Amino acid sequence: VQLMDESMEDSGFSNILLDLCKDNAKQIKYTIVSSKEEEDIATVKVKFQYKDEEPLLTVTIAEYMEKGMALAFSGKEMDESTGETLFAETLKEKMKSVKSKIINETLEITCKKVDGKWKIAQLPEEMLNVLTSNISNRAENMGDELSSESVDEELTGEAEESDEPEEPAETKNRYFFRRC
Questions:
Q1: Distance from the CA of 27 to the CA of which of 47, 95, 110, 127 falls in 20 to 30 A?
Q2: Residue 124 vs residue 1, higher pLDDT
Q3: d(CA 18, CA 135)
């Protein structure tokens, strides 16, 4: 599971969100519910308890955009540094007032025995939500909300057909984090 690609490593926005995820990762709790072994493959059910920061991110982005628009209409230009500072301040401010919920989620993790030791072979996609405090879920949803097809569908009630394959969630997440 990749949280960000190399081009995002120096982004202040990504660093702010990554710090939030790292702090929350320290509080993730898990319990192994069951495991089933078949030769050198095991399926392990794990119950995770983690913070849901999707509401925090939603409120932060809305306020950030509002403040950004106010700056634009006042004639001030918002460069990357100003944007990062504004986002960080808004996030810190909202962290004081937006309560995080706790999510309980059970996932199946596939393990494989390699050289006599069990190794994780495959993580479910939902594991990204656990590791990012559900921020990746918000990013994916926001990408869907901002796509022109979604807007057209909301306005007309009809979905536009396309021969193009849907963009993977991982790509949408990268796009979102770059845009913030």
A1: 110
A2: 124
A3: 10
